[in-house]
From TrEMBL:
Residues 1-25 are annotated as: Disordered. Pfam families: FUR. Keywords: DNA-binding, Repressor, Transcription, Transcription regulation, Zinc. This is Ferric uptake regulation protein.
Length: 176
């Protein structure tokens, strides 16, 4: 099992601002730079709206809904409609730059080059709202066998597991 900790970007990655509104500028920057390059390679338009949506999602580091994204982008005379955010999210999801977390109807950014068909496992912490993305080849082959047996063709293979993350469990143990 290969773990891609969402937090493991080479810097401390806690987004626990008191107002819950501050983002991680370094994550946002590296995500948009990577996306820009990728869109250029694929001959796609990386519009300012798409860039802003990705920056907000990447800075958050945890699943964020379209309305929350729109709200973070609005203000100072700017009003961003959720429908525009959804359209940008569709594009970003198709390009593998963000993933949709169905159980939360929310989105997280992805900076892993795992390719289109990879089966992904998301570990969602119910305490801190954090999320880890993993690829799990063992799960993938077992799932493939089960699907083949059922004669079922998947359009996506994304598993979402809810629970408690290691650091929340650790904190709870320390606090007794
Ligand atoms: Zn991913
Ligand atoms: Zn947690």
């Amino acid at each position: 099992m290969r773990a891609y900790a969402q937090q493991d970007h080479g810097h401390d990655h806690h987004h626990d601002g008191a107002d819950g509104r501050h983002g991680c500028g370094r994550c946002a920057e590296s995500a948009t730079e990577r996306a820009e390059r990728l869109c250029q390679e694929r001959g796609l338009q990386f519009t300012p709206l798409r860039r802003d949506v990705l920056a907000v999602v990447a800075a958050e580091g945890r699943p964020l809904g379209a309305y929350d994204i729109a709200e973070r982008m609005s203000g100072q005379g700017r009003r961003v409609a959720a429908v525009s955010v959804y359209r940008a999210l569709d594009f970003l999801t198709e390009q593998g730059l963000v993933h949709r977390i169905s159980s939360r109807n929310a989105f997280v950014s992805c900076e892993h080059d795992h390719g289109d068909g990879a089966s992904l496992v998301f570990l969602i912490c119910r305490s801190c709202g954090g999320i880890d993305e993993m690829t799990a080849p063992a799960v993938e082959s077992a799932l493939d066998a089960t699907l083949a047996q059922a004669g079922f063709t998947p359009t996506s293979r994304i598993l979402e597991v809810e629970g408690e993350c290691g650091s929340c469990r650790e904190r709870r143990r320390r606090e007794g």
